[in-house]
TrEMBL record:
The lineage of its organism: Bacteria, Pseudomonadati, Pseudomonadota, Alphaproteobacteria, Hyphomicrobiales. Belongs to the LysR transcriptional regulatory family. Pfam families: HTH_1, LysR_substrate. GO terms for molecular function: DNA binding; DNA-binding transcription factor activity. Keywords: DNA-binding, Transcription, Transcription regulation. Transcriptional regulator of the ttuABCDE tartrate utilization operon. The keyword Secreted does not apply. It comes from Rhizobium terricola. This is HTH-type transcriptional regulator TtuA.
Length: 298
């Protein structure tokens, strides 16, 4: 009887898997190359090697975007689990003292868009540190921090409004968001989707409308940016939003459309009275990941 010897299956390289995940998350080979500290050509070679190992095409590429194939979508959860397990094993030996619970706060807009990725990436590096996230308005988050119910928090505020408070980790321009090819900005009074008093975006937008003597009405009142964007996309209202928040079915409006130009706003990181290595680790990760991701989105 002839004994058939099977070739062993190839072992997947964690460095290549990290590059694969970076491309899947950013939708760009160039952005992923910056994230993993490699050249774009080196990243392309890594993906070519991975596709040869798996005998599958992982990405669909055109001049403007990169998207996962069905095979790529199948591989992604495996890649994330393998990287997480590797980080957990290494962390057990190299950072055994880094464990505990850190209470982090974030406004709704940041919690919706950025926190899932930030927290996932933090957990990959510090698997023994649990982060409890609270999403609320900036005012309520400040109050929770003062009452020691949070260890650190992100807040939105007008530039220079509280120059002594925390540290600025991002500054961005506000724009009037409208539906692409929409007509909401032509209506009189102007329908606005916004949040209640205390929101720095609201204060800037309404003050500038008042200064221009542009009639307006609060058509949609919501604390959630998702709901505000829904009103914009449906062409029911316009809303003051950061430029990076605009999606493909939205457009930035301004003086050409008869709307006053808006100012900017700051994102600040505030920390409580108590400090520890674990709190500092979360703060450092938020600084790095938030600035990196905002830069991509902007």
């Amino acid at each position: 009887m002839t004994l058939t010897i099977r070739q062993p299956l190839p072992l997947l390289d964690n460095d290549i898997l990290r590059t694969f995940v970076a491309i899947a998350e950013s939708g760009s080979f160039t952005t992923a190359a910056d994230r993993v500290f490699r050249t774009p050509s080196a990243v392309s070679m890594q993906i070519k090697k991975l596709e040869e190992q798996l005998n599958a095409t992982l990405f669909l590429r055109d001049a403007r975007s990169v998207s996962l194939t069905e095979s790529g979508e199948t591989l992604l959860p495996y890649a994330r689990r393998m990287l997480a397990l590797s980080n957990e094993a290494v962390g057990r030996f190299r950072m055994p003292e880094m464990k505990g619970v850190v209470r982090l706060g974030a406004p709704d807009d940041i919690g919706e868009r950025f926190m899932p990725t930030i927290l996932r990436r933090f957990a990959e590096v510090y698997p023994a540190i649990m982060v409890d996230l609270t999403v609320d308005t900036s005012g309520q988050l400040r109050r929770r921090l003062q009452e020691q119910r949070l260890d650190l928090t992100l807040v939105n505020c007008a530039p220079g409004m509280v120059s002594h408070e925390g540290e600025v980790i991002h500054t961005e321009q506000l724009v009037w968001a409208g539906a692409k090819c929409g007509t909401a900005h032509l209506r009189d009074p102007l329908p606005v989707s916004i949040w209640e008093d205390g929101c720095c975006w609201r204060a800037d937008a309404l003050a500038r409308l008042d200064k221009e003597k542009r009639p307006y009405r609060i058509a949609y009142l919501s604390a959630h940016t998702m709901a505000q964007r829904a009103a914009v996309i449906a062409d029911l209202a316009v809303a003051p939003l950061p430029r990076s928040y605009l999606t493909d079915d939205m457009t930035a409006l301004g003086s050409r459309q008869g709307l006053p130009d808006l100012g900017s706003f700051e994102v600040r990181l505030l920390t409580g009275a108590e400090t520890s290595d674990t709190i500092q680790a979360v703060a450092d990760s938020v600084r790095f990941a938030f600035s990196e991701m905002i830069g991509i989105a902007a």
